[in-house]
Design a protein that fits this description.
This protein is an alpha/beta fold and about 325 residues long. The chain contains 10 helices and 12 strands. Strands 3-4-5-8-9-10-11-12 form an 8-stranded parallel β-barrel, surrounded by 6 helices. Strands 1-2 form a two-stranded antiparallel sheet.
Length: about 325
């Protein structure tokens, strides 16, 4: 599988990364029930098909995602680039609160290492900005964790340019993880150009907009406790407009014998600032479908046609 360098002097990551949010199982922002055996099989299928990195977080499934990842890679740790996150702490009610205090980050890295059954993570990321803690304090603790060898690289998620600049004054930010899809393109205005200019790798999450751009989405498929049921992207009138866009995209994908989901991921990967797209999967069949996007290169004509559609469907 094609690989790209993650930021300045960074590692080579495959252009598709395995997203482990959904395999965490039920919690406030979960996707419903999961079968751990299917999840483990999905991860191993991804590795067998050349995906070389996994993105998880301490809060996914309130820790369960990391435990499943550990089981899946227990005999293959050295061949897998493991990325996880800190800064969202369980609130005891099935949800989580943002907490980037250094003491909390310190506790979280130790807990993640225990759940992942490893003595280091390859990439440790701050999950969300915390308005109650100076970013300099949070990032300073991340630097210490890197210096101690508990994380090979450190990065952030969902940060704007101002926060990135403040972190960069202390230590180079290896990566940014933002939401980026055909339906969420705002980061392309300032954030992606800044990252490209300053050697910050970008791993985009939700390239298929949480399933909306797969080409086979239907609200009837959602579990009762699926977080998407209450998300504005999955409510009317937005939902119908987005699904109409999907239908207009279908003929473009069909020309290359690909799905709309493949096209959505390939579109994200077509941006020069993007290192890799994080694509979630809950079973091996989804993995095998997702990896088809890695070889899909959109033509100039495709990109032009897509751009016209996105302007028409300004959602």
């Amino acid at each position: 599988m094609l690989k790209r360098k993650l930021g300045k002097n960074g590692p080579e990551l495959t252009v598709i990364g395995f997203g482990a949010w959904a395999i965490g199982g039920p919690w406030k922002w979960g996707w419903g029930k999961v079968d751990d055996n299917e999840s483990i099989e999905a991860i191993r299928t991804a590795l067998d098909n050349e995906i070389n990195w996994i993105d998880t977080a301490a809060v996914y499934g309130l820790g369960h995602s990391e435990e499943v990842v550990a089981e899946a890679i227990k005999d293959r740790r050295k061949e897998v680039f493991v990325a996880t996150k800190c800064g969202m702490v369980p609130d005891g009610k099935g949800g989580a609160n943002i907490n980037n205090h250094p003491n909390s980050i310190r506790k979280e890295i130790e807990d993640s290492l225990r759940r992942l059954q490893t003595d280091y993570v390859d990439l440790y990321q701050i999950h969300w900005p915390d308005p109650n803690v100076p970013v300099e304090d949070s990032w300073g603790e991340m630097v210490k964790i890197k210096q101690e060898g508990k994380a090979r690289f450190i990065g952030v998620c969902n940060f704007d340019v101002n926060l990135l600049e403040r972190c960069m004054k202390i230590e180079h930010v290896q990566s940014l993880q933002p939401p980026f899809s055909m339906l969420r393109r705002d980061v392309a205005k300032e954030i992606l150009p800044y990252c490209e200019k300053n050697g910050i790798g970008v791993v985009a999450y939700s390239p298929m907009q949480a399933g909306l751009l797969t080409g086979n989405f239907h609200t009837k498929k959602l579990a009762e406790d699926d977080w998407r049921k209450n998300n504005p992207y999955f409510q009317e009138p937005y939902l119908s407009k987005a699904l109409e866009l999907v239908e207009r995209l279908r003929p473009i994908a069909a020309k290359a014998d690909k799905t709309v989901g493949n096209l959505a991921v390939a579109w994200v990967l077509s941006h020069s600032a993007i290192t890799s797209a994080i694509v979630g999967a809950r079973n091996k069949n989804q993995v095998l479908e997702n990896i088809k996007a890695a070889e899909y290169v959109l033509t100039k004509e495709d990109l032009s046609e897509i751009e016209k559609l996105l302007k028409e469907f300004e959602l």
